[in-house]
Amino acid sequence: MGNQTKLRSGYTTGTCAAAATRAAIERLLGNDVTEVTITLPNGEQVRIPVAFAKIEGTTAKAGVIKDAGDDPDVTNNMCIQSEVQLHTGGNQEIVITGGEGIGKVTKPGLSVPVGEYAINPVPRQMIMQQAQELLSSGMGATITLSAPEGAKIANKTLNPKLGIIGGISILGTTGIVRPMSEEAYLDSLIPQIHQAIAMGQSVIALTPGGMGEKKLLSLGVNSDAIVQTSNFIGAMIKECAKHEQIRGILLFGHIGKLIKVSAGIFHTHSKVADGRRETLAAHVALMEAPVQAIRDIMALNTIDAGKDIVEQYGLQQVYTSLATAASQRVIDLIEEVRYHNEAESLPQISVGTVMYALDGQILGYDLEAADLGKELGWRL
Fold first, then answer.
1. Which one, of 131, 148, 149, lies nearest residue 140 by Cα?
2. Mean of pLDDT values over 21-31
3. Residue 58 CB-half CA count within 13 A
4. Domain-by-domain residue ranges, the chain?
5. 237: which of 136, 142, 175, 226 is 20 to 30 A away, CA to CA?
């Protein structure tokens, strides 16, 4: 493998919040603190530097700078803060809440109920553990988390789409941020499916990114039914396959992504696989296109440029062929997932595919897409 540099792991916002809470309580106990040791969910102990810890009467506040390691995390270098106020009058309750820059949940389907701050269950337990370890028996406290830059940074996350308003979420299931972790990215994408189900959507539209979402919204599709997949189309379809509430999937996206699905490529990042020209060439060949058309397609720099060749040779029906193939690949994947999970008895999921060009023009779709689109309320 040569001398590859090992990527450095970091800590989740949940770990930082727990560390800041511990630092604040330590300060309340009269201890000066520049770092704290906390226990991660797997039992591992880690030492976390503390940016500041100050006390005023029965209240202390501490901050930890989020270190995401070598992961391109938008919350990297944010200051995650915890203010701990001791209760008086014998109130032994430990309350964990949010403040500035911590988002509030406004839509169902997430692991946090509507109306509460977006502090997920594992971080909440980690924070509670710090309080229970340090506070004497009979002592209670209110722990208020904050992130001064949270409202601004949240706009770079999926929080607005998920209905988490006003700031970031306090997240993490392991306490550790793995660099370039696809698992972590999927953890942020999959809740969209759960939320769509909770909002009563039985037909959902899967689209790789923001451009597809804007196009769907412009067609009149309810935002609650739109789920972004990024490049993880296959993983998101597998999640859909587990839920009996989902009876229809509309796959909607740029031809450069969805033509890969037509070829059975479900992870659409260029580092995984390509095959776009070959797939388009194969489908026009099945239409008995001239050899020169096939050669021209195989010489394309971008799949968008193929639109001119398709029009030149009168091969527009190829987009319906590609969409039909993509839908069948999705159906096959759903059946495979259910077979391995012994869940073949779940209701069948209808699948349709729509492909558009970079300029937003709808290139083509299959018959099932037209039916599912009508159910979603589109105006095509």
1. 131
2. 95
3. 10
4. 10-177, 190-376
5. 175
pTM listed for this prediction: 0.79
Q: Give residue 199's pLDDT band: very low, low, confident or very high (50, 70, 90).
A: very high
Whether 289 has a pLDDT exceeding 50, the answer reads yes
Taking only the tens place, the pLDDT of each residue in 222-241 is: 999 999 999 999 999 999 99
Question: Class for domain 10-177, per CATH?
Answer: alpha beta
Q: Are 189 and 158 in contact (CB under 8 A)?
A: yes
d(CA 163, CA 251): 23
**C-alpha dihedral, 303 to 230 to 377 to 222, nearest 10°:** -150
- The reported pLDDT for the residue numbered 5 is 52
**Structure tokens, 231:** 């490049």
CA 244, CA 94: separation in Å to the nearest integer?
A: 39
Q: Which of 53, 17, 29 is nearest to 125 (CA)?
A: 17
Burial of 323 (0-12, 13-18, 19+ CB in 10 A): buried
- Order of strands across the sheet that contains 52-56: 52-56, 59-65, 79-86, 141-146, 94-98
DSSP H stretches of helix in the chain? 13-28, 121-134, 150-154, 159-162, 182-189, 191-198, 210-218, 233-241, 255-262, 276-286, 291-298, 306-312, 318-340, 367-376
